[in-house]
Amino acid sequence: MSLSRYTPDTLRDLCASPFETIIDVRAPSEYAQDHVPGAINLPVLSDAERAQVGTIYTQDSPFKARKIGAALVAQNAAHHLQTALVHKPGGWAPLVYCWRGGQRSGSFATILSQIGWRVSVLEGGYKSWRRMVQTQLYETAFPAPVLLLDGGTGTGKTDILHHAAAMGAQVIDLEGLAQHRGSVFGSTGPQPSQKLFETRLARAMAMLDPKRPVLIEAESNRIGAIRLPPALWDAMRGADLVQITAPLDARAHYIAERYAQMSQDSAQLSQILDGLRKHHPAARVQAWQAMIAQPVDLARDLIAQHYDRRYAPAPRSATVLEKITLADMSQTTLKQAAHTLCDTAARKGPKS
């Protein structure tokens, strides 16, 4: 019985595909590097097993490697059937993929199809997905008009964007996709690989309505270790702006609250502040480290002495469509700012 092969024409097709589950059968390290959005990892070979089979194939015997590999695939498939897939109903319809749509996905899909499930294999595997991502990001113009939200650190830009998204606006949260906030406190955990960030970004771009503006926070072309693709960066550099300002004291309290958990780890925060020695005299950094137990005071001084002095204002050529001055950093005020942002995007109008 031949397996059903699924060949999506576009990223949007795959992101909106009707499959109930997308299964990545590659090794865990491959999955961690990048994977189709929403896919779960049910490896038919672990990282160690994959290396073992590869070594036998190149240094001993391809036949022996295939035989050992088949036994391992069968063992791992049995484990998945008894655990992750044990409660799947008879009408379940998964999509399975491996690196290139070959033996690993074919073997696992065959087992699933013999049970009676309506399984399909992604034609070309992960490599076909990666080609579509690269085409979207590096060979295609950004698909929608961009409106940038611009403002200093601690002005609540990310919260405003999230409120705007809840109100129906098109939003791409670049810092969220990159798992990195634009401050010295930056990281919200380990950043994804460049490939995984690009997958997340390409998916977000593929789902955009090209006739409506998309709201994006003003960034540099790097977010932590992540690089923005040129097409997006060019669209951002030519975009109109909405500028946000807020009182220094309100911003300081906002940052202190936002990073309250980090400020409780004085050793970690001291190490992070050490990274500012390349920008400031040692005495100033030491003064900040001495303020760790007073997070509001620390945030206030960092804003005044570091963030705002290094803050790059918008290019003179950029058109500022709206200036929003926040009286405070309460969620009510940030929601009001989001309403104004949405109204400004609506006035900007559809892409011609």
UniProtKB/TrEMBL annotation:
UniProt keyword annotations, A-Z: Selenium, Transferase
One GO BP: tRNA wobble uridine modification
GO molecular function, one term: thiosulfate-cyanide sulfurtransferase activity
Residue span(s) of domain Rhodanese: 16-138
Annotated transmembrane regions: none
The UniProt record lists the keyword Acetylation: no
Top EC category: transferase
Listed EC numbers: 2.9.1.-
Entries under InterPro entries matching the protein: AAA_SelU, Rhodanese-like_dom, Rhodanese-like_dom_sf, SelU, Thiosulphate_STrfase_CS
Full protein name: tRNA 2-selenouridine synthase
Record organism: Roseinatronobacter ekhonensis
The gene coding this protein: selU
